[in-house]
Design a protein that fits this description.
With 106 residues, this protein is α+β, with helices and mostly antiparallel strands. Helices cover 35% and strands 32% of the residues.
């Protein structure tokens, strides 16, 4: 019997011009992280602040979100809630072209 697989969503993004780091990080800490971590389908959600590329040089992205999901269909349903939609809309006003990568455990 194989172990059940889980899904991890990785989101890479930069802030839009005019959005301060303090403004975004306050939103993330006070609203985004608690709300997403409270979703029934999420077993872990964190936001990382990129520092550099290993070996030297600047990271092409300022932030990386990692969302660990137990059930992708349930997650998609959870994301439709009015509270989450409002948070997502606010997120989109702050970031440029977020890139999402959906991954599955081996």
């Amino acid at each position: 019997m194989t172990a059940p697989t889980s899904t991890t969503i990785i989101v890479l993004f930069n802030l839009k011009p005019g959005i301060s780091i303090a403004e975004y990080e306050k939103f993330a800490r006070e609203h985004d992280i608690p709300a997403v971590n409270g979703l029934p389908s999420v077993v872990g959600y964190e936001i990382l602040k990129a520092q550099a590329v290993q070996g030297g040089g600047a990271s092409p992205y300022q932030y990386i979100e990692i969302v660990r999901v137990t059930d992708m269909k349930q997650f998609e349903e959870n994301m439709k809630s009015p509270v989450i939609q409002e948070l997502f809309d606010t997120f989109l006003t702050m970031v440029e072209s977020p890139q999402s990568i959906v991954c599955q455990d081996l």
